[in-house]
Design a protein that fits this description.
By secondary structure, the protein is of the alpha/beta class. 40% of the residues lie in helices and 14% in strands. A seven-stranded mixed β-sheet has the order 2-8-7-6-5-3-4, sandwiched between helices. The chain has a two-stranded parallel sheet with strand order 1-10. Strands 9-11 form a two-stranded antiparallel ribbon. Helix 10 links the parallel strand 5 and strand 6 (198-202). The structure holds pyridoxal-5'-phosphate.
Length: 372
């Protein structure tokens, strides 16, 4: 893979952002001597808690659909695109012309940056938040305006509407803080956003949020021509490796995104897997419950170790170690545990994905060892 292609990848971003090799390498080849020093769990394989994947994987129905679709891969995916689009439209109570599929929601973010930002049309985003769209907007020639989160880790929406903004990016729940911006604040913000400023609400972690203070804004799309919602199959649906996400917006906005679109961008295996996943509500509920239970265990363990956590509504969490986390991240990596990168806006906070119970036991053991 050439450097330029690699720099366009999600992991490429992480490297550019200075995450270090921990987040960039899934399965490093450990020297034999180093292997001997690793705990048993890590020697069997690196414990990857850096990318907020669903450790329970996709629905068995999705895997069966992929197997059945193998003999279809010689065909372009048109019918499968139509079928999934129709199911998503039904699920969300919108028209098929209000859905656009992407190779992961990352591609939706890229299209939005290309369509709605550029010279003289800035992007406004929180700090810290999911960085990708800032990079895409920069590539489109836009100024990136970063607005720090409030002290309790909400988007500071009062400060997120500067004149001339082409796009406001609102990640709710927010990555990396795992925190919510309350629904009343988001509603009032959407009411005030001027028509020429698009607002992209990234709901990648929607399914994990259970607070009464949270809502999806999909129902508001019909009243708001400037609203775009991004969703993904990479998180609770456990399909990060297949690459499928989508946008929901009014047809005119979808048209604008389509102008930037790559033809036949989504593959047939991802499409059939996504369609089958939508039909397996029990699997989704199981992932949510397992995440909730394990997350509770990790939060209380961290609290008992003296590390408070930002209240989390996602499948990851941020804990305050009250010291620079850079060296901690490296030391954890040395013990076979990969966690999120260091976020300069929150340098003492460690972001860790909620994996399975054994993975989290390995993480807590390694953290105890590192913190001394
Ligand atoms: N949005 C947020 C908030 C994320 O955390 C991620 C991935 O970590 C993405 C979007 C991109 O996910 P994908 O491109 O796999 O849909």
């Amino acid at each position: 893979m050439s450097t330029s292609v690699q720099s366009l990848s999600r992991r490429g971003f992480v490297q550019i952002l200075g995450a270090g090799a921990a987040a960039a390498i899934a399965r490093p080849s450990w020297p034999a001597a180093a292997l001997e020093r690793l705990p048993a769990a890590a020697a069997a394989g690196v414990v990857r808690l850096s990318s907020n994947e669903n450790p329970y994987g996709p629905s068995p129905a999705a895997l069966n659909a992929v197997r059945r679709a193998f003999d279809q891969i010689w065909r372009y995916p048109d019918e499968a695109v139509d079928a999934l689009t129709a199911d998503l439209a039904k699920l969300h109570g919108v028209g098929s012309d209000q859905i656009l599929l992407g190779a992961g929601s990352s591609q939706i973010l890229k299209l939005a940056a290309a369509a709605f930002t550029g010279a003289g049309r800035s992007i406004v985003m929180a700090d810290p938040t999911f960085e990708a769209i800032g990079r895409y907007a920069q590539a489109a020639g836009a100024e990136v305006v970063r607005v720090p989160l409030t002290a309790d880790h909400r988007h500071d929406l009062e400060r997120m509407l500067p004149a001339g903004a082409g796009l406001v990016y609102l990640c709710n729940p927010n990555n990396p803080t795992a925190s919510l911006t309350p629904k009343a604040e988001v509603r009032s913000f959407l009411e005030r956003a001027p028509a020429q400023t698009r607002v992209l609400v990234d709901e990648a972690y929607f399914h994990y949020a259970e607070s009464g203070d949270y809502e999806s804004v999909i129902q508001q799309v019909k009243e708001r021509p400037n609203l775009v919602v991004a969703r993904t199959f990479s998180k609770i649906y456990g399909m990060a490796g297949l690459r499928l996400g989508y946008a929901i917006a009014q047809p005119e906005t979808i048209e604008r995104l389509l102008e930037q679109h790559v033809w036949d961008n989504v593959n047939i295996l991802a499409l059939v897997a996504a369609q089958a996943s939508l039909g397996d509500a029990a699997r989704l509920e199981r992932s949510r419950r397992l995440n909730r239970d394990t997350r509770g265990y990790v939060v209380s363990s961290l609290n008992a170790m003296g590390h408070p956590c930002i209240p989390t509504e996602t499948n990851f969490l941020m804990t305050d170690l009250r010291r620079d986390v850079g060296p901690v991240i490296e030391a954890l990596k040395g013990r076979g545990v990969e966690v999120g990168r260091r976020f300069p806006a929150l340098p003492s906070h460690l972001r860790v994905t909620v994996g399975t119970r054994p993975q989290m036991e390995a993480f807590l053991g390694a953290l105890r060892g590192v913190m001394g």
